[in-house]
Design a protein that fits this description.
316 residues, 7-stranded mixed beta sheet, 9 helices
Length: 316
């Protein structure tokens, strides 16, 4: 992936402060969570796709996750279930909660990310991780050991990572591609297609920018849409007034853009909208007229799953 663009200068200090407070509230509300059902559901979903398109379980595949994120719990869950998996992300993962890990985050991503990471770790993630490793351990009082080499830190748009991880059968990435500049994304896709098993499968789930959740504003996260929440911003704010842009980089790719980009190097085996018509109850005739340049499938597609297979190897 390209250099981190997790913070944007266009976001005001007040908006950043509001975002921090909202994120801390989410962490505190989730502090006692020891529910791993979402991780198991994800594992089952990917295993079923591997069975369908590769004729083998995920545990017999060479797997790569692009963008394991600040909380690499999905990668940990897959590894703990016997999957030969490696991930790559720009940011230093917090595996042990050591001072050196936090310093690495500060050195690479600055004080804002470091504060968020430290707060999230001590409010929530530390205890959740302990419970997760205990759940995955084969023996009582013997926590699962996480090999650091499984958590590569680097740029997926360069050949360094892919040269040493050739032959992957299954590659997946969730809620990451929308944060990568389109030119870097094109390079990543080319390197993926050139390095993976020609009969392998790629699972990609980006958040489509034109959807109601596409602006990544905390007030319009998918789980909030059916809650009686008082919002400062309007539906599809990021396509309209954009008064309070999210504190994260977004490439603003549409559903049509992703189709075109993926088709350069892959056949699209499946395309599935995760929650069809999400946000439709917020659409008014006035907003629809204002957004008349966008077809309905753009405005009501948010998370979309693409299953891809390499089509041809072109020079990157």
């Amino acid at each position: 992936m390209p250099d981190s663009k997790s913070s944007l200068k266009s976001t005001s200090t007040l908006d950043r402060l509001r975002e921090w407070i909202a994120l801390m509230r989410l962490s505190l509300a989730d502090a006692g969570n020891r529910d791993f059902s979402d991780l198991q559901t994800s594992f089952t979903q990917h295993d079923q796709i591997a069975q369908k398109y590769l004729g083998r379980p995920l545990t017999s595949c060479k797997v790569i996750e692009i963008g394991y994120g600040a909380r690499p719990n999905r990668l940990i869950w897959f590894f703990g279930h016997g999957v030969d998996i490696t991930g790559i992300d720009l940011d230093q993962p917090i595996l042990r909660g050591s001072a050196s890990e936090f310093f690495s985050v500060f050195r690479k991503n600055g004080w804002e990310r470091a504060i968020k990471t430290i707060a999230r770790w001590f409010l929530n993630e530390r205890n959740f991780r302990r419970a997760l490793l205990a759940q995955l351990s084969q023996q009582p009082n013997s926590p699962l050991q996480l090999p650091p080499q499984r958590f590569a830190v680097g740029n997926a748009s360069t050949d360094d990572f892919w040269a040493s991880h050739r032959g992957a059968n299954y590659i997946f990435s969730e809620d990451v591609f929308e944060h990568i500049p389109s030119d870097s994304l094109q390079q990543i896709l080319c390197l993926m297609a050139a390095s993976m098993d020609p009969m392998g499968v790629v699972y990609v789930k980006p958040m489509i920018f034109t959807g109601i959740c596409g602006g990544h504003h905390l007030e319009w996260y998918p789980h909030t849409l059916h809650q009686p929440t008082k919002r400062r911003t309007q539906p599809w704010e990021h396509l309209r007034k954009n008064r309070h842009p999210a504190n994260t980089y977004l490439n603003k790719l549409t559903l049509a853009d992703y189709r075109k980009l993926f088709s350069m190097h892959f056949d699209i085996l499946e395309e599935t909208c995760v929650q069809p018509n999400l946000g439709i109850h917020f659409m008014t005739p006035e907003i629809r007229r204002e957004l008349s340049q966008y077809p309905d499938e753009e405005l009501f597609s948010n998370g979309v799953i693409f299953l891809l297979r390499p089509r041809r190897n072109l020079p990157c």
